[in-house]
């Protein structure tokens, strides 16, 4: 870690234990000086009060070297247009952040810390702004819900028809907002199909515990609703030049981007063996198995293995999907794609490392940090 990184971490540790207060001060400062900014944020700030603050602090601390994360930051900047963020807002937010930290750090705060945060924030903001400026697409697309199907008590598969064409690559994800049910709350969901002629997009959503957006999308979204969809992001794409056989590992609705990649492969693959490992807690959660089996029956290069971790009478494989993958193989020559919850992805990456799969051949999307 360089000097800048050390200083950012050191200074954050002075306020870390008062995070809630820092967040409160940060928003109050921002909204008092610029009341118009309040309209950019969700109505119920209490549920996710520290979201932006945490996001910036994490970004500033982990992205010590912004060039390394240039592409991600450009995409983040493009994506921020959906919040109606304007270039002049960056300075306001950066100023409020540093002032909030300075206020709670007390006497140990120094001018050097001030400068370190200002420099790191400015670098990141400038890359985000460049990304936003260079984008010729609209900040979001309106899309009508044209199909909605409950596949399990907490899982829905739904399809939307964007009002204008929206270009994306198989394996990418988008942020979605449903203004009728949860205005100004955006969450990311993977597109579950490869680009189609009719432009429709399919999503697979599992409602999580106290989740605001996922439960609305599963339980309250209806055909005819309008949602907003922001620019596609993500780099979990197929390398068409690769001749290696491929393994897809999906946990629950982590199947969504895998389905998209699989659909793309059905359009051109003749030579690569493809193995899908699809795991869930119970058989009910293997919500898209019929479709996977249909694909496997049609394409001789495709095989599907399913597993349940909490369904002892399930006739397929038993256990966590990462352990199941390890029972097959050898895998050291394959390309891997992994997608699902944080723990599922973490376990699978660990297993693959133990199986000597080079990390350069593994692409993944983790749906959560936990
Ligand atoms: C790149 C990417 C792609 C994604 N694609 C999909 C997808 O295709 N399908 C899909 O269903 N989800 C997907 N997600 C997850 C999705 O973005 C949301 O995080 C998820 O739906 C929860 O949002 P929420 O508003 O319902 O919950 P929030 O309101 O954000 O959270 C409410 C509460 O639930 C907890 N919580 C949040 N997520 C989880 C979780 N996964 N497990 C347990 N508790 C949780 C939070 O800690 C909080 O206490 C993806 C995430 C990422 C980063
Ligand atoms: C260095 C600058 C910034 C970084 C790194 C950054 C990063 C992020 C990230 C990662 C998120 C989380 C997205 C998510 O939770 O899905 C987020 C949310 C958000 N950002 Fe930024 N951001 C920056 C600047 C700004 C600015 C200048 C504004 C303008 C006010 C802004 C407005 C928002 C809003 C409104 C949200 C949604 C918050 C919520 O849902 O509660 N951001 N930001």
What's the helix and strand layout?
Layout: H1 3-15, H2 19-33, H3 51-62, H4 70-80, H5 87-105, H6 111-134, E1 140-152, E2 155-162, E3 173-178, E4 182-190, E5 201-206, H7 212-220, E6 226-230, E7 246-251, H8 255-268, E8 274-280, H9 289-298, E9 302-308, E10 317-318, H10 321-327, E11 335-340, H11 342-354, E12 362-366
Parallel strand pairs: 7-8, 7-11, 8-9, 9-10, 11-12
Antiparallel strand pairs: 1-2, 1-6, 2-5, 3-4, 3-6
Helix pairs in contact: 1-3, 1-6, 2-5, 3-6, 4-6, 5-6, 10-11
Bound molecules: flavin-adenine dinucleotide and protoporphyrin IX containing FE.
The site of protoporphyrin IX containing FE has 21 residues, from α3, α4, α5 and α6.
3D structure, described in words:
Helix content is 40%, strand content 22%. With 370 residues, it is an alpha/beta fold. Strands 4-3-6-1-2-5 form a six-stranded antiparallel sheet. It has a six-stranded parallel sheet with strand order 10-9-8-7-11-12, with helices on both faces. A hairpin with a 2-residue loop joins strand 1 (140-152) and strand 2 (155-162). The longest helix is centred in the first third of the chain and has 24 residues, at 111-134. It is globular, with a radius of gyration of 22 Å. The two termini are 25 Å apart. The chain binds flavin-adenine dinucleotide (FAD) and protoporphyrin IX containing FE (HEM). Flavin-adenine dinucleotide is lined by residues 173, 187-190, 204-206, 208-215, 253, 256, 341, 365, 367-368.
């Amino acid at each position: 870690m360089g000097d800048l990184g050390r200083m950012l971490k050191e200074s954050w540790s002075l306020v870390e234990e008062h995070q809630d207060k820092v967040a409160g001060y940060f928003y109050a400062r921002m909204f008092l000086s610029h009341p118009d900014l309040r309209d950019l944020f969700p109505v119920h700030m209490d549920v996710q009060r520290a979201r932006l603050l945490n996001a910036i602090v994490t970004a500033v601390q982990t992205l010590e070297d912004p060039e390394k994360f240039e592409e991600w930051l450009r995409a983040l900047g493009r994506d921020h247009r959906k919040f109606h963020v304007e270039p002049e807002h960056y300075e306001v937010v950066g100023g409020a952040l540093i002032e909030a930290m300075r206020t709670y750090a007390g006497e140990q705060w120094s001018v050097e810390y001030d400068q370190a945060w200002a420099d790191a924030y400015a670098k990141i903001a400038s890359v985000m702004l460049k990304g936003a400026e260079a984008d010729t697409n609209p900040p979001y697309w309106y899309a009508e819900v044209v199909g909605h199907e409950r596949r399990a008590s907490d899982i829905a598969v739904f399809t939307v028809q964007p009002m204008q064409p929206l270009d994306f690559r198989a394996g990418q994800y988008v942020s979605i907002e449903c203004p009728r049910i949860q205005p100004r709350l955006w969450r990311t969901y993977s597109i579950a199909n490869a680009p189609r002629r009719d432009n429709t997009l399919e999503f697979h959503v599992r409602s999580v515990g106290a989740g605001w957006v996922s439960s609305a999308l599963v339980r309250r979204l209806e055909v005819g609703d309008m949602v907003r969809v922001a620019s596609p992001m993500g780099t979990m794409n197929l390398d068409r030049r690769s001749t290696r056989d491929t393994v897809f590992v999906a946990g629950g609705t982590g199947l969504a981007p895998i389905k998209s990649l699989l659909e793309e492969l059905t359009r051109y693959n003749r030579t690569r063996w493809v193995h899908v490992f699809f795991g869930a807690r119970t058989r009910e959660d293997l919500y898209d198995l019929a479709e996977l089996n249909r694909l496997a029956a049609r394409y001789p290069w495709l095989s599907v293995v399913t597993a349940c971790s909490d369904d002892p009478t399930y006739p397929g494989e038993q256990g966590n999907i990462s352990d199941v993958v390890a029972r097959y193989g050898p895998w050291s020559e394959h390309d891997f794609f992994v997608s699902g919850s944080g723990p599922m992805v973490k376990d699978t990456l660990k297993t693959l490392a133990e199986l000597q799969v080079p990390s350069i051949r593994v692409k993944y999307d983790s749906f959560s940090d936990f």
